[in-house]
Every structure is written in C-alpha cells, then in structure tokens.
Amino acid sequence: MSSELEDLRRQLAALSARVDAIEGLRAMMDRDLADIKQRMDAQDHLLQALHITQASHTQRLTRIEERLTRVEERLTRAGETLSRVETDFRGKLDTIVAMLDRLVPPAGGPA
Fold this sequence. Notes:
single chain; 111 residues; mainly alpha; 1 helix
C-alpha cells in the first residue's frame, strides 16, 4: 500500500506541476491577448486619424479641382478673345498696308 501511496503522491505532484505550468501559460496568453488588444486599439486610432486626414485632403483636392476648372474656362475664353483680337488686328493691318500701297508704291516696283 505504501508503494501505491507513493505512486499517487508522484502522480499528484506531476499533475500539480502540469496545472502550474498550464496556469503560467494561461497567464502568458492573457498578457499576449491584452497586448494584441492594445495594438489593435492603437491601429484603430491610426486608421481613424487616416480616415479624417483623407477626408480633409479629398475636400481640399475637390476645391482645387473646382478652382482649376474655373481657371481653365477663363483661359479658354481669354484665348478665344485673343484670337478674335488677333484676327481683327490682322484685318486692320492688311487694310492699312493696302491703303499705304496705294499712296506709296512698294520700293522696286513701278513708280
């Protein structure tokens, strides 16, 4: 009976050691899970900050694009106006040159 009791004590000691090891592992797992949760919370905060920043940048880019569109429209109108002025100027210049040619014959031509 004494050997049976000794076997039971050894088994109990082994089981106690396993339980202690398991408790240690469980505590480590709890710390690891807490660390993971903390990191996930930090990442959530970073993602929220990124979302806010992106929304702000999107608004700014939209305003810039709208302004650029208005500038392009104004430049197009200015280009069209300049073309009309150039055409008008060339027509008037041609008229002046023709009038001068009638008053003063071109050099080297019939006098």
